[in-house]
Structures are given as structure tokens and as C-alpha cells.
TrEMBL record:
Highest taxon of the lineage: Bacteria
Organism placement in taxonomy: Bacteria, Bacillati, Actinomycetota, Actinomycetes, Kitasatosporales
GO biological process, one term: methylation
SUPFAM superfamilies with a match to the protein in the record: S-adenosyl-L-methionine-dependent methyltransferases (SSF53335)
Entry keyword annotation includes Transferase: yes
Full protein name: Methyltransferase domain-containing protein
Keywords noted in UniProt: Methyltransferase, Transferase
Entry keyword annotation includes tRNA processing: no
Pfam family, one: Methyltransf_25
């Protein structure tokens, strides 16, 4: 789909996320929504909602949705996707898009202005325990919170490419979001620190497929996992080393394909 005029004026990483990378997690979104029978009696709160694809999918099932994110450029794309526009006519769904506070979480008072969420998701960015605890106060007891992350490193073909970010960021001990291999109980531990009760888990195959090597590099860089590496070195170095790490996954037709496994944990408020 060609970008709209508004999308063309947003930063390239946000556009690359929306146009290339975000769809890689669609199997995860669908698995969670199927598990909880998301539909017209559901109110989904998406923490770190990005440019809103997961919320659009929930809204298409009939759910009311609320999204929040710290990235204003991605959030603007979510607004374009979710909020009614005159040329599209009235939409038959309820949607809100909210900016996140400094700690990455939504303002509790703003959340209380609408009906309480019945399902909370954190598909792309894991919030801190203080954010999850604050959300739990708004939702009330026995609301499921889904926390998602990478599966075992040996089951994720993208790991060598992601290690480029980790390695290049290390020399100057750059701060910021950076990929780290997840531990077996990391998601459960996060839930417990927030005062939530782990109550099940699941694994979902999310293959990363790209039209060509350039799209793969742009898509992965758009995740934000390479930002610290760019600050520690420079964009050219990151692009060069990421390109080399991806070459083993280039197929004969030029497409790039990597099998990955994601894991999610269900925790109850």
C-alpha cells in the first residue's frame, strides 16, 4: 500500500515499521485473540501499540480498543489507522490512541475515563513492573495481561542479525532499547514483580519474510533495537554488518526468510 501524504512526512523508521516489520507478528496477535475469543464484548488495551496493526485486527473482530506508545511517530500512524476520517465515513468500532508517560505507561486517570480493559497486551515492547501494576489498578481483578517476547534463542533464526545490535552497542556501553536473549522465566518474573499471577503461556511461530535484503535491513532497523548500536558506532556500520548477518537467509529469488519462535505469558491482575 502506498503511503499517504501524512505518512510520507513521518520519520522513515516509523514508516518502515508500519509498512515492513509490524506484520511479522501477525501470527502472535491472531493466536492471542483466538485464545481469548476477542470480539464485541472485549476491550483491548495495547501497551506499546506501535502503529496500531494489532489493534486494527482486534477492532475488526468487534472489540473496543485503546492503544498507547512512547513513539509519537508510530502513534500518529495508529491514529490514522484507527480514528475515523471523513473520506472513509463512520467506522463501526470504538478506538482511542493515547500517548505514554515518561515511564512508558498510560496515565491512569485517562484510562479510567472509558470502560476498563478486559484484555491487556504487550506484544512488542515490555513495560516495566510499575506500569503493569498501575494498569492492574484500572482494570480490576482477574483481567488477563499478555506479555510477549522472543522464544529460545536456538529457535530464532533472526538471532545472529539481532546480535549485531548487541555487539555494536557494547563497546561504549550505549544505553537504550537493545536486544538481549530472553531467559526461560523472564516473562513470568516480570509479571510477579508487578504483582500479577502467571496463568499459562503459549508459543507461536512468527517467520520473518522480506521482499529483498534492503527491506530486511530496513525492517529490522525500524524495530528500535539497533538505535543504541547506531549511537555507539554509526548508521553505515550498522547497516553493513546487519546486511552481512542476513546474507545466509537470502533465497535464490532474492527474498529473505527467517523462522522464529515467540513466546507469550498470560498473567492475571
Amino acid at each position: 500500500m502506498a503511503p499517504t501524504l501524512a505518512q510520507r512526512h513521518l520519520p522513515r523508521p516509523a514508516r518502515d515499521w508500519a509498512e515492513i516489520q509490524e506484520r511479522m507478528l501477525v501470527p502472535l496477535y491472531e493466536a492471542v485473540y483466538d485464545r481469548f475469543e476477542v470480539g464485541r464484548h472485549t476491550h483491548v488495551l495495547g501497551l506499546g501499540c506501535g502503529s496500531g496493526l494489532a489493534l486494527v485486527m482486534a477492532a475488526a473482530r468487534g472489540a473496543a480498543v485503546t492503544g498507547t506508545d512512547t513513539d509519537e511517530a508510530r502513534l500518529e500512524l495508529a491514529r490514522q489507522r484507527l480514528l475515523p476520517e471523513p473520506q472513509w465515513g463512520a467506522r463501526h468500532w470504538s478506538a482511542r490512541v493515547l500517548p505514554s508517560g515518561p515511564d512508558g505507561g498510560p496515565d491512569a486517570a485517562t484510562l479510567r475515563e472509558g470502560p476498563p480493559p478486559t484484555l491487556v497486551t504487550a506484544f512488542d515492547t515490555l513495560p516495566g513492573p510499575e506500569v503493569l501494576a498501575r494498569v492492574a489498578e484500572v482494570t480490576g481483578r482477574d483481567t488477563p495481561v499478555v506479555l510477549a517476547g522472543w522464544g529460545p534463542v536456538e529457535r530464532c533464526a533472526a538471532a545472529p542479525a539481532l546480535r549485531v545490535a548487541e555487539r555494536l552497542a557494547e563497546p561504549r556501553r550505549a544505553t537504550g532499547r537493545c536486544w538481549r536473549p530472553g531467559g526461560r522465566d523472564d516473562l513470568e518474573d516480570l509479571a510477579r514483580r508487578a504483582g500479577l499471577r502467571p496463568d499459562g503461556s503459549g508459543r507461536v511461530a512468527c517467520p520473518f519474510g522480506y521482499a529483498d535484503l534492503d527491506s530486511a535491513v530496513r525492517g529490522l532497523i525500524s524495530t528500535g533495537l539497533y538505535d543504541a548500536a547506531v549511537r555507539a558506532t554509526d548508521a553505515g556500520q550498522v547497516t553493513k554488518e546487519l546486511t552481512e548477518a542476513l546474507r545466509p537467509y537470502v533465497r535464490a529469488d532474492g527474498t529473505v526468510w527467517m523462522q522464529n519462535l515467540f513466546r507469550y505469558v498470560v498473567a492475571m491482575t
